[in-house]
Design a protein that fits this description.
Low-confidence stretches: 1-16, 44-52, 423-436, 443-449
Helix content: 40-55%
Strand content: 5-15%
Mean pLDDT: 79
CATH topology of the largest domain: Hypothetical protein af1432
Protein name: Cyclic di-GMP phosphodiesterase CdgJ
Radius of gyration: 23 Å
CATH class of the largest domain: Mainly Alpha
Number of strands: 8
CATH superfamily of the largest domain: Hypothetical protein af1432
Shape: elongated
CATH architecture of the largest domain: Orthogonal Bundle
Strand order of the largest sheet: 1-2-3-4-5-6-7-8
Order of helices and strands: EEHHHEHEHEHEHEHEHHHHHHHHHHHHHH
Organism: Herbaspirillum frisingense
InterPro entries: dGMP_Pdiesterase_EAL/HD-GYP, EAL_dom, EAL_sf, HDOD, RNase_Y/CdgJ
Largest sheet: 8 strands, mixed, barrel
């Protein structure tokens, strides 16, 4: 790979040499407020790990090239920076109002670095200190200039965690707990005064023995399986009628101005024809993960965004590898969405699948991550982890016969698509918003009913 730190005009064509990890960051109400963006080189040689100047500068260049709005929407992007990048002009690729710059724990604090951070703060940049596990003189030097302290809760004893939180709160800093993997850890950090949380605790189910799916959710799940099986409209309408709220919502949906009909559509059969099966399927899948809390009815659900992004990424992968086989793309989208139903319902995947009927291929993908769909799902899950197993990612790419370039394009488009999904547009456009065209070579099924 060329030395991008010495040539700012060339990084664009190297963008596809990288994978992107996007870790959600939530507030105390568990609303999504931003993502930490982590780039990983698709070339697994040690030079790409050791050359901090090249690697970190490439992150900045690629983030700029991607267009942060495509990756994070209207949220904040948290990006790691080292001393070399802080001291370089690469930093100005990033819009100050869209990013939080995380100073890595390995950065040596010098008078020059402190002066540079002060200069960037005056330019409008917001800073966080990454992976703080104890107080130190270096941290104290930077403390007046940073807004957020990130503490690795896996590396700090709970008793010391309380002491750290009190110290930094007295300094009027915002606290971000990272690597929060359980609901108990989240609750402890809330008690200790933390403001933000990073980790997949929100996507991990609390298993409750004997729990049943809510009636409305059960109807939606059965409708989705009927659509996958391609049954006739009459059978679909019969199932929709089982849920009055769902029936009324569907009628309201097709009678919104976006469809432009002069006559009121007053039957479910007509509504299904107007909406089309493809839009109905997407609408139902998104409804599964929509916020049911009235106070958050217009807020983006982190679980919904994650599920939507997984579904779209799997769909694009299937469309690229098996072009022209629309059924496979549709099944891939379903696998992506359903891969989080255990978290949605707070029960094991085995229990969920005992209550609904899915094909053998989908079942094997969800339970064992096997088969074509299981491998694709496993690949997508790898990108969600802060510590990506790049050897495993390359193995899966090879197995699927998918290039790193093609995967990166699917990932980028899926992030943008996932960001467009929120509960405040489901009632307007069936969960769909105007989008840029998908990458070359991918099938766009969204407009084809």
């Amino acid at each position: 790979m060329s030395d991008q730190s010495s040539d700012q005009s060339t990084p664009a064509h190297h963008a596809l040499d990288f994978f992107l990890a996007r870790q959600p960051i939530l507030n105390r109400e568990q609303d999504l407020i931003g993502y930490e963006l982590l780039f990983r080189s698709a070339a697994f040689g040690p030079a790409n790990v050791k050359d901090g100047v090249t690697a970190t500068a490439a992150v900045i260049a690629h983030a700029s090239e991607l267009g942060l709005s495509n990756v994070i929407g209207n949220l904040q992007g948290f990006i790691n920076v080292d001393a070399a990048v802080l001291m370089s002009d690469f930093i100005y690729f990033l819009p100050a109002d869209k990013v939080v710059l995380e100073i890595l724990e390995t950065v040596k604090v010098t008078p020059e670095l402190v002066a540079r951070v002060r200069e960037l703060v005056k330019a409008g940049y917001v800073f966080a200190l990454d992976d703080v596990v104890a107080e130190s003189e270096e941290i104290e030097e930077l403390l007046p200039l940073v807004k957020i302290i990130k503490i690795d809760v896996m590396e700090v004893d709970p008793s010391k965690l309380l002491k750290l939180s009190v110290h930094f709160k007295r300094a009027q800093k915002e606290l971000l707990a990272e690597k929060v993997e359980t609901l108990q850890q989240f609750n402890d950090c809330v008690t200790f005064g933390f403001d933000y949380f990073q980790g997949y605790y929100f996507a991990k189910p609390m298993i409750l023995q004997g729990k049943k799916l809510e009636a409305s959710k059960m109807v939606i799940m059965h409708l989705l399986t009927l659509l996958v099986r391609n049954v006739d409209n009459g059978e679909i309408v019969r199932y929709i009628k089982r849920d009055v709220a769902l029936s009324l919502t569907l009628l309201r949906l097709v009678n919104t101005p976006v469809y432009g009909f002069q006559k009121f559509i007053d039957s479910l059969g007509q509504a299904l024809i107007v909406l089309g099966r493809r839009q109905l399927k997407r609408w139902l899948q998104i409804l599964l993960f929509a916020n049911t809390d009235k106070e958050k009815a217009h807020a983006m659900s982190p679980l919904m965004i994650l599920a939507a992004t997984r579904g779209k990424m799997l769909e694009l992968i299937a469309a690229k590898i098996r072009p022209g086989r629309r059924k496979m793309s549709e099944m891939a989208f379903t696998v992506g969405i359903m891969s989080l139903v255990d978290a949605l319902f707070g029960m094991s995947m085995e229990s969920v699948l005992r209550q609904i009927t899915v094909s053998t291929e989908i079942r094997e993908a969800l339970l064992r991550r096997t088969g074509f769909y299981g491998m694709a799902l496993k690949l997508v899950e790898c990108t969600e982890q802060r510590d990506q197993d790049q050897v495993e990612m390359q193995r899966l790419l090879d197995e699927l016969q998918l290039s790193a370039d093609d995967f990166f394009e699917a990932e980028k488009y899926a992030f943008e698509w996932g960001n467009s999904i929120s509960t405040n547009n489901i009632g307007q456009q069936g969960g769909m918003m105007p989008m840029t065209p998908p990458p070359d070579g991918y099938i766009d099924d969204d407009d084809d009913d």
